[in-house]
Amino acid sequence: MPLPVAAWNPPPEEPPSLDIRLEFEVVDRFLEFLQRGEVAPAELDAWLRLQGNHELLRRGRGDGAVSEEALKTAVRTTVRGEIFPGTGSLGRLDAGPWEVLSAIVESIRGREVQLVESTRRSLAPYLPAGRPMPPMRVYFHLGGSWDGRSSDHVYINLTYFQERGVASLPGLEALLVHELYHRVQASLIGSIDDFSSRNSALFTIMMRIQREGTARHLEYLYLQGRASASALDRTNFDKYREGLRTAAGQAGVLEEIVGRVVDGRRLEAQRLTDLAASRGGPLYAIGHAMAHAIDLQLGAPVLAGTAADGPIAFFDAYSRAVELAAESSILPARFTEQIAALDEGYGDSWLSASRLRRIGLKALVRDDLEAAVEALEQAVRLDGSDAISAYNLACALALEAERREALPWRPSDLERFARAGSKRSALRWLEEALRRGFDDQKLLRVDPDLSSLRDDPRFRAILQGYGIGADRGVAAEVW
Known about the structure:
The chain has 479 residues and is mainly alpha-helical. It has 22 helices and four strands. It has helices at residues 25-36, 41-48, 54-63, 68-79, 98-110, 112-123, 158-164, 170-188, 198-224, 231-250, 252-262, 266-276, 282-298, 300-309, 311-324, 333-340, 346-365, 369-382, 387-405, 415-435, 441-446, 457-465, and strands at 20-23, 136-141, 148-150, 154-157.
């Protein structure tokens, strides 16, 4: 008789360790320029290319506030002992005596080991087990309308602390917890900022709520556990605690945003989302309340798992948490309904759908019709709410049909059927674009990409079926 074998229970996996390093080169070199009172053009060019300036320049190019020449001018101006009156992403560089900046750098360096270790301890319970983390680099730089940001690395604006003095440095620790967790999130799954379709807009909103809310939750826990705190820390802690208390009342803005998405006014939804996610706005508070509920009811490992599994997992975990606590959800019913209505499978393909939509549009613009059709056919399959890709696919197929018709052919040639099929496909995807909510009536009437369809009675019938008049002439305007 065989002896029973005891079940083997493998030990739980340990969360991965974080390799965190602080990089001061941008600030160190700048302080050298200040000490000398001059900077050579070649030195300035080399300084500009340092990794620590990357985010400032990237943001500046995005809003038109910072160019490489503007940053060079800022350095030359301040090295001469003058104030640089910057705007936008760069901001003014006049934050008091530069000795304060030197003292701040010296203070951070003196506590670097303890600072890194306390950050690791704060993040460790919220790192998904078994998922290796890339090296985490924190670059200190000068300038910017933000205190810290995370993109390819973490970037901390020391001008922000210089304005408040050395006494504000305890706030740096909480900021590192917040921004480094954003790097953890980004390393686990990609990010999306896409309002091109109903699905992508909803997913973008969900991801912002999850990422900002969870990062704030960890920052809040860090501040809560401190024996002493600076005035800035206490201000932030009180703000976050008040946000937790009033999160349900702030959810009204979320209902307004979702209403714009559902009504097809996605640009308005994007503007409202940006506003609600700026400077610790309502989306932070809503996400914080959700992360707090998940952590409290289901535990840190579950909250950590949602960082790897994405927004849908985060929202599902929150639903379980409030059910377990016998509490009401703070989320508007309309938002919950829209999340449930996300096309099946979109939650697993959101990044590919967004990427393929952009690839298809770029291929269409450069007149590579074969590549455009291939990418757009995949995009419309992955995202059933993507009206823009459906329209662009109709345009690509219509252009293909037009070019095939221009080719010589014999009546017996099978190519004839391929040409006819391409036009039928173009008309089918045009109708599908309208069904999905495409409503740019002017473009439909004048877009030269659809010229080959305009004499087809089916084209006019499709537009009339959606209450749109079809102009036979094609305007010179090019989309």
